[in-house]
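Dear Dr. H.,

I hope your travels went smoothly. While you were away I took the liberty of generating a structure for the chain from your last submission, since the lab meeting agenda had it listed for discussion. I wanted you to have the full record in hand beforehand rather than looking at slides cold. The sequence, exactly as received, is reproduced here:
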Amino acid sequence: MVKDMDGYTGCRGCQHYQFDGSCPAFDGGKIPLDILSGDFEHTQKHRLQINSMTWSQRTGQREIEIREQLAEAIKKRNGNPNP
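The corresponding predicted structure, in token form, is as follows:
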């Protein structure tokens, strides 16, 4: 999704978005299709949410945390649990 006038960039630009493609705002982390497709901007509460979490611009620190989580998951998957 391209950044629009209000700064909304979709899930990947959100601080709550997890490296595995999930979001803690939804049961089981499953992001609804209308949000993923861009038909619904998650700047307001979605009817399928389990809490009040909405889109919030990802910060530089959150980006670092996600990259570290991803690197750790890849190492574990490849059989190397140590960094």
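Two observations you may find useful: The mean pLDDT is 84. Residues 35 and 41 are 6 Å apart (CA to CA).

With kind regards,
E. W.
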